[in-house]
């Protein structure tokens, strides 16, 4: 179980500060797929990077903490400061446009040897990796290819193979299927979900595609302007969205820069619109396992 405690993550640009994630408190249970949706710039990637422990200037943790419920190899509890040591082993990250982040001048097999945590016996690593990519639907020859020789879908499978090789307890996938055609998107998502079922771990999936979320997630987290405005079991969130922004997201996918949503948010005070941001909203449980942002006096935090 991962607990986010009043997490505030900011960027310092000159003498200006952007609070990209602003006061997120919630619990992510073990063995589940959590979908994260929200408009562009709402803080999804920032929150994912913070959970991954990739907090580098100009980004910084300005408040709060994360309890991972995990211990490192040294037996100490993982925190945002030391979780980096457990990258790939306990926690891995499939970044946005990840299929383009494979090193273009290195063959796939060497990407397996190069990445942190592999044991020093290269032959053994390669044998395991070759067998593993086969299970993930890649031909063994893919190991000897350079990234540009593989299709986008194959490269994404390689990224997923790298991210899951050590069976980490937590995998963060930031828009794992963007830029793939719909058939390949579905295959990649099904692969991730199969692996999750086999490993019994937790996957956080960021996507703009509400259809994807509906199909593959157990829980949904909806972000707006740096805050989580709704969090609950996927079925409940889709069947009975509580927050004005969630309702709109389910009705229609917002496009980048669509200012009309902000207008609706501002007038949606009753459902926790912009008014809620001025009075520091907290997540209130409106139904079992279904939380929505409301002004503080309306109830307790999730
Ligand atoms: N490196 C950075 N330096 C300064 N500001 C940043 C940086 N990265 C993100 N931000 C700002 O933080 C806020 C949240 O950005 P973030 O990328 O987390 O949003 P997002 O919800 O993941 O968006 P998208 O869906 O477009 O990926 C935005 O206002 C963005 O401009």
TrEMBL record:
Classification via SMART domains = AAA
Q: Which species is the source of this protein?
A: Devosia yakushimensis
Q: Which PANTHER family match?
A: MALTOSE ABC TRANSPORTER, ATP-BINDING PROTEIN, OLIGOPEPTIDE/DIPEPTIDE ABC TRANSPORTER, ATPASE SUBUNIT
Write out the entry's keywords from A to Z: ATP-binding, Nucleotide-binding, Transport
User: What would be an example GO MF term here?
Assistant: ATP binding
This protein's membrane topology, according to the annotation, is: Peripheral membrane protein
What the entry lists under InterPro entries is as follows:
AAA+_ATPase, ABC_transporter-like_ATP-bd, ABC_transporter-like_CS, Oligopep_ABC_C, P-loop_NTPase
Subcellular location as annotated: Cell inner membrane
Ranges for the ABC transporter domain? 2-250
Pfam families (alphabetical): ABC_tran (PF00005), oligo_HPY (PF08352)
**Could you tell me the superkingdom of the organism this chain comes from?**
Bacteria
**Entry protein name:** Peptide ABC transporter ATP-binding protein
Please state which protein family the record places this protein in: Belongs to the ABC transporter superfamily.
């Amino acid at each position: 179980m991962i607990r986010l405690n009043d997490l505030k993550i900011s960027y310092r640009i000159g003498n200006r500060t952007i609070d990209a994630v602003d006061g997120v408190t919630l619990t992510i249970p073990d063995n589940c797929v959590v979908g994260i949706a929200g408009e562009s710039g709402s803080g999804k990637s920032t929150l994912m990077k913070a959970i991954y422990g990739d907090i580098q200037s100009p980004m910084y943790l300005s408040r709060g903490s994360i309890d991972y419920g995990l211990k490192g190899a040294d037996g100490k509890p993982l925190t945002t400061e030391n979780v980096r040591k457990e990258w790939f082993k306990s926690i891995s990250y499939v970044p946005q446009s990840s299929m383009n982040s494979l090193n273009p001048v290195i063959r796939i097999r060497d990407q397996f040897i190069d990445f942190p945590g592999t044991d020093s016996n290269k032959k053994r690593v390669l044998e395991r990796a070759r067998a593993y990519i086969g299970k993930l639907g890649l031909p063994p020859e893919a190991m000897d290819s350079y990234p540009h020789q593989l299709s986008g879908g194959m490269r994404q499978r390689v990224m997923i193979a790298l991210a899951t090789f050590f069976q980490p307890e937590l995998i963060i996938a930031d828009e794992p299927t963007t830029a793939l055609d719909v058939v390949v998107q579905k295959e990649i998502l099904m692969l991730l979900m199969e692996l999750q079922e086999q490993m019994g771990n937790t996957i956080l999936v960021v996507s703009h595609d509400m259809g994807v979320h509906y199909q593959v997630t157990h829980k949904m987290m909806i972000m707006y302007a740096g805050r989580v405005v709704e969090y609950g079991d996927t079925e409940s969130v889709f069947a009975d969205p509580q927050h004005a922004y969630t309702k709109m997201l389910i009705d229609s996918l917002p496009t980048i820069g669509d200012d009309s949503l902000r207008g609706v948010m501002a007038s949606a005070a009753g459902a926790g619109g912009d008014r809620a941001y001025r009075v520091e909203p907290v997540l209130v449980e409106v139904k079992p396992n279904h939380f929505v942002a409301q002004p503080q006096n309306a109830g307790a935090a999730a």
